[in-house]
Design goal:
By secondary structure, the protein is an alpha/beta fold. It has eleven helices and 14 strands. The strands form three sheets. Strands 1, 4, 5, 6, 7, 10, 11, 12, 13 and 14 form a ten-stranded parallel beta sheet that branches. The chain has a two-stranded antiparallel ribbon with strand order 2-3. Strands 8-9 form a two-stranded antiparallel ribbon. Strand 4 (47-50), helix 2 and strand 5 (78-81) form a beta-alpha-beta unit. Helix 1 (26-42) crosses helix 2 (63-73), helix 2 packs parallel to helix 3 and helix 6 (186-195) packs parallel to helix 7 (212-225). The longest helix is centred in the C-terminal third of the chain and has 29 residues, at 320-348.
């Protein structure tokens, strides 16, 4: 990783925003995301990504459609997914969607493939959670062959076989950048290395540095598999505001109810101010002024040898003006300051 090579991205899960206390409609939120992507491009962000969720308050259920809308509203920013649940997508349909997006955007498409940390899509699309691993493994094999081979003959247990199948429109040679999203499972790290694919670490709690062992494992496995070095990225949550106090108080107001509901659903500990502050100080929440957030990103970029850092900036009912200010500060102040800090470290080192 070099200071010049570090990319800064933004992730949206399509979470509904508010405007002066009024909750936006789903349609208004979808249009807002397009507007925010345009803002992200204007302030120099490298990548804008959208997730895939099927929960109340989330509007990222048709990610390729939303990204295509963003493609027509922007010119340079790269467009991807913060997660695509490959297990409950059909690889052929997914190929068509993203080859078309890549064509529409003039080569700006990419995606992160994951197995799903929330599993509503399994019931919604008629899949059995008992097939969790098999679905992902077989579909990843097919999806990568579709990207890397002109004509594909394939058979498995999760969909109909293919015989000398040629898909159109074709992706660029070798396919589009395809990352494997990992939430902490070493087998997922090894899978990414086995395919020679970039690794995206989803770090939403605890010290990011605890993933250093996963990064070491990944680089060793790449080398043993005969693949060249690949990028490592990190996805985490946060908010940038003009002052630390403003960021901390604003994020707590909207993060606490979301995390309380999540704790009730999953049986996790409920958030409190002490744990919240610990996550800001030493954990995976990137909340604060531009200077504070920049220093924290530079630290984890160095410790985990990152090539990319993505900030998930939206959370349920966060006011649209706070979202916009966070995007603006992230691009105009955080990103250049991170690169300045890393350049200084490299020069002094």
């Amino acid at each position: 990783m070099t200071a010049r090579a570090l990319e800064l991205g933004l992730d949206s899960f399509g979470e509904v925003a508010t405007d002066r206390g009024r909750v936006l409609s789903d349609a208004e939120t979808v249009r807002l995301i397009v507007e925010e992507a345009r803002l992200a491009e204007s302030v120099g962000i490298n990548v804008f990504s959208v997730g895939e969720h099927y929960r109340e308050g989330h509007n990222d259920t048709a990610t390729p459609v939303l990204l295509a809308a963003i493609a027509t509203a922007t010119e340079r920013i790269r467009l991807g997914t913060s997660v695509t649940v490959l297990s409950t997508n059909d690889p052929v349909r997914l190929y068509h969607e993203f080859s078309t997006l890549d064509a529409v955007s003039n080569g700006r498409a990419q995606l992160v493939l994951g197995r799903a940390s929330v599993t509503e899509s399994f019931t919604l699309f008629g899949y059995d959670l008992a097939d969790y691993e098999r679905l992902f493994e077989e579909k990843l094999d097919l999806f990568m062959r579709l990207q890397r081979e002109e004509a594909v003959t394939w058979s498995g247990t999760v969909r109909a076989p293919l015989v000398e199948q040629r898909l159109r429109p074709r992706m660029r040679p070798g396919g589009i950048p395809t990352w494997i999203g990992v939430g902490g499972n070493p087998n997922s790290v090894l899978r990414a290395a086995g395919y020679g694919l970039p690794l995206m670490l989803a770090i939403i709690g605890g010290r990011p540095q605890r993933f250093a062992g996963h990064v070491d494992l990944y680089h060793r496995a790449l080398e043993q598999s005969g693949h060249p070095a690949q990028p490592v990225g990190q996805h985490s949550l946060g908010l940038v505001a003009d002052t630390d106090e403003e960021a901390i108080e604003t994020w707590w107001q909207y993060w606490e109810p979301v995390m309380t509901a999540f704790a009730n659903e999953r049986g996790f500990y409920k958030p409190n101010r002490e744990r919240y502050q610990a996550e800001i100080d030493h954990g995976a929440l990137f909340v604060g002024s531009p200077e504070t957030v920049a220093h924290k990103i530079a630290t984890v970029a160095r410790d985990l040898r990152l090539s990319r850092f993505d900030l998930k900036y939206d959370i349920m009912h966060l006011p649209r003006e706070a979202r916009a200010r966070s995007i603006e500060l992230f691009g105009r102040e955080v990103a250049p300051r991170v690169r300045e800090l890393l350049t200084k470290e490299l020069t002094n080192g």
